[in-house]
Amino acid sequence: MVIADCANHRIIRWKIGDMSGQVVAGGRGNGNQFDQLCCPSDMLVDDETNSLIICDRKNRRVVRWPQSCDTTQGEVLLDNITCRGLAMDDQRYLYISDSDNDEVRRYQIGDKNGILIAGGHGKGDGFSQLDEPTYVFVDRQQTIYVSDCNNHRVMKWDKGATEGTVIAGGQGEGIGLKQLWYPQGLFVDTSGTLYVADSWNDRVMCWPKGAKQGTVIVGGNGEGERANQLNNPIGVFLDRYGHLYVVDRNNCRVQRFSFE
């Protein structure tokens, strides 16, 4: 797995079962030089170019970092953007959330302006608005899913839509099964089921497509470091074998869960 190690200003590759990882980007202290990162918040692996694409959040830029053995620095793809999350579709378009401008834009590699996809109508809770979007997910139909953090909801925007649909939360902050509290990382499987890190509730929620409420599948046992607890989870990923990986931020760990 490859992890954005935010507070250490680096990206680290970690083989399951190993006791330590390998730094593959950054790791040279907090800074804005081409061989440095500052609080990276998200990244993806671009297999076609054998590179990482990184939200270098505090440097307000998106960088591409080749994974060849002799590479020690990245290349700036976009700058002057408060990027929080990013995703790539099958056609290699990038989708990047901009938390300052409360919007998500789609970019071709090399494009500096992008096309507005979601939000961008001022901060708010209307169906055409977002309030500090963080993480994004895109499916094969170019439908995007956005963690609309300060609205405590997850929004779905179909390709070409001018408004989104609330698919989880949106009932104010809280601990109820119809509520989220500062949602962060998210993943949507091929059946349309949403998995979301419900960060301030210290749990991961599962929302089947069309469901009116979610189910707690990890955590929800209070803030803590026990195996059945989380402390401010920020990322989720579901692999092809059904293993769920959870970035348990304040416990400084990644946990893997298997479900029957």
Report on the structure:
The chain is an all-beta fold and 260 residues long. The protein is built from no helices and 22 strands. The strands form 6 sheets. It has a 4-stranded antiparallel β-sheet, with no helix packed on it. A 4-stranded antiparallel β-sheet has the order 8-9-10-11, with no helix packed on it. It starts with a strand and ends with a strand. The mean pLDDT is 95.
Features of the shown structure:
four-stranded antiparallel sheet; mainly beta; about 260 residues; Neuraminidase; Thrombin, subunit H; 2 domains; about 45% strand
Task: Name the poorly predicted regions.
Answer: none
The profile of the biggest β sheet is: 4 strands, antiparallel
Strands of the widest sheet, in order across it, are: 4-5-6-7
CATH structural architecture of the largest domain: 6 Propeller
Number of structurally distinct domains: 2
The beta-strand count equals: 22
* Estimated radius of gyration: 17 Å
CATH class category name of the largest domain: Mainly Beta
Q: Structural class, from secondary structure content?
A: mainly beta
Assign an overall shape: globular
CATH superfamily of the largest domain: TolB, C-terminal domain
> What is the percent of helical residues?
under 10%
Which percent range describes the beta-strand content? 35-45%
Termini separation comes to 22 Å
Mean pLDDT: 95
State the order of secondary-structure elements, H for helix, E for strand.
EEEEEEEEEEEEEEEEEEEEEE
CATH topology of the largest domain: Neuraminidase
Total of DSSP H or I helical runs spanning 4+ residues: 0
